[in-house]
Amino acid sequence: MPELPEVENVRATLAELVIGKEIDQVIIGVPKMIVGMPAQQFVGNMIGQKIEAVRRRGKFLLIDTTDGTLLSHLRMEGKYRLHNATDPVDKHTHVTFHFTDDTELRYLDVRKFGTMELVLKGQEELTKSIQKLGPEPLSPSFEKSTFATKLKKSGRAVKTVLLDQSLVAGIGNIYADEICFQAKVLPERPANTLRSAEITRLYESTKTIMAEAVALGGSTIRTYVNSQGKIGGYQDKLQVYGEKGNPCPVCGTPIVKIKLNGRGTHFCPKCQK
């Protein structure tokens, strides 16, 4: 967490809060979160910049300023909050962007896993982080023929391939389980054993589930909320993720949970043969 739907919701709500604001101070409490340059250089480059747009690529937030693009990855628990400068500072606040209107964009991260990388404006495609990303699941560039070719060439488990960001950007653990369930495919099945009809179902399920999750603001499983403090709505539609032991919504068989390459993985042993 968060995955593409959650990051997209953060992007949309963050854009409503910060576009047009000018940075006049940056405070960094955890320097290791800044990658690609020393923290003090990052601070110097951000001061005087005005936020012009907030975009997304895969699970990355892309914050465009006057001269640069900030690549922000929230990892497990990262959050952005807009505050008045006089508001109490949460102990998990690790990066603060102070604006000329005396508001602050604060980045909170309990686990301190999040990262920020500043590049020249529009140069994010040259970074290793973005270069390796595959097509967006809701974009025209996500083509079934390419998707099928990559699946047929891989002997890895279907779920493992879906989590490969070079195949399709933005799918994580929750949505991989849901996609496999809707497509009636076992997540541990070797991808190169899939029939054409099964590949088609996986492809269509990927588009359908990701679109629905984006529309509902993502899934709040533990601590996820968007930039305005609101939870997602898709968790109420999850069919198998987090449902270990509960009856399958289709056939009533208890949902099974296993470990697959270190990831908790949920499926119906009857519907997904």
TrEMBL record:
<keyword id="KW-0238">DNA-binding</keyword>
<dbReference type="InterPro" id="IPR012319">
    <property type="entry name" value="FPG_cat"/>
</dbReference>
<comment type="subunit">
    <text>Monomer.</text>
</comment>
<comment type="similarity">
    <text>Belongs to the FPG family.</text>
</comment>
<feature type="domain" description="Formamidopyrimidine-DNA glycosylase catalytic">
    <location>
        <begin position="2"/>
        <end position="114"/>
    </location>
</feature>
<keyword id="KW-0511">Multifunctional enzyme</keyword>
<dbReference type="GO" id="GO:0034039">
    <property type="term" value="F:8-oxo-7,8-dihydroguanine DNA N-glycosylase activity"/>
</dbReference>
<keyword id="KW-0479">Metal-binding</keyword>
<dbReference type="InterPro" id="IPR000214">
    <property type="entry name" value="Znf_DNA_glyclase/AP_lyase"/>
</dbReference>
<feature type="active site" description="Schiff-base intermediate with DNA">
    <location>
        <position position="2"/>
    </location>
</feature>
<dbReference type="InterPro" id="IPR015887">
    <property type="entry name" value="DNA_glyclase_Znf_dom_DNA_BS"/>
</dbReference>
<dbReference type="Pfam" id="PF06827">
    <property type="entry name" value="zf-FPG_IleRS"/>
</dbReference>
<keyword id="KW-0326">Glycosidase</keyword>
<dbReference type="InterPro" id="IPR035937">
    <property type="entry name" value="FPG_N"/>
</dbReference>
<feature type="active site" description="Proton donor">
    <location>
        <position position="3"/>
    </location>
</feature>
<keyword id="KW-0227">DNA damage</keyword>
<dbReference type="InterPro" id="IPR020629">
    <property type="entry name" value="FPG_Glyclase"/>
</dbReference>
<protein>
    <recommendedName>
        <fullName>Formamidopyrimidine-DNA glycosylase</fullName>
        <ecNumber>3.2.2.23</ecNumber>
        <ecNumber>4.2.99.18</ecNumber>
    </recommendedName>
</protein>
<feature type="binding site">
    <location>
        <position position="111"/>
    </location>
    <ligand>
        <name>DNA</name>
    </ligand>
</feature>
<keyword id="KW-0863">Zinc-finger</keyword>
<dbReference type="GO" id="GO:0008270">
    <property type="term" value="F:zinc ion binding"/>
</dbReference>
<dbReference type="InterPro" id="IPR015886">
    <property type="entry name" value="H2TH_FPG"/>
</dbReference>
<feature type="active site" description="Proton donor; for delta-elimination activity">
    <location>
        <position position="263"/>
    </location>
</feature>
<keyword id="KW-0862">Zinc</keyword>
<comment type="function">
    <text>Involved in base excision repair of DNA damaged by oxidation or by mutagenic agents. Acts as DNA glycosylase that recognizes and removes damaged bases. Has a preference for oxidized purines, such as 7,8-dihydro-8-oxoguanine (8-oxoG). Has AP (apurinic/apyrimidinic) lyase activity and introduces nicks in the DNA strand. Cleaves the DNA backbone by beta-delta elimination to generate a single-strand break at the site of the removed base with both 3'- and 5'-phosphates.</text>
</comment>
<keyword id="KW-0234">DNA repair</keyword>
<dbReference type="GO" id="GO:0140078">
    <property type="term" value="F:class I DNA-(apurinic or apyrimidinic site) endonuclease activity"/>
</dbReference>
<keyword id="KW-0378">Hydrolase</keyword>
<dbReference type="GO" id="GO:0003690">
    <property type="term" value="F:double-stranded DNA binding"/>
</dbReference>
<dbReference type="InterPro" id="IPR010979">
    <property type="entry name" value="Ribosomal_uS13-like_H2TH"/>
</dbReference>
<dbReference type="Pfam" id="PF01149">
    <property type="entry name" value="Fapy_DNA_glyco"/>
</dbReference>
<dbReference type="InterPro" id="IPR010663">
    <property type="entry name" value="Znf_FPG/IleRS"/>
</dbReference>
<feature type="binding site">
    <location>
        <position position="92"/>
    </location>
    <ligand>
        <name>DNA</name>
    </ligand>
</feature>
<dbReference type="Pfam" id="PF06831">
    <property type="entry name" value="H2TH"/>
</dbReference>
<dbReference type="GO" id="GO:0003684">
    <property type="term" value="F:damaged DNA binding"/>
</dbReference>
<keyword id="KW-0456">Lyase</keyword>
<dbReference type="GO" id="GO:0006284">
    <property type="term" value="P:base-excision repair"/>
</dbReference>
<feature type="active site" description="Proton donor; for beta-elimination activity">
    <location>
        <position position="59"/>
    </location>
</feature>
<feature type="domain" description="FPG-type">
    <location>
        <begin position="239"/>
        <end position="273"/>
    </location>
</feature>
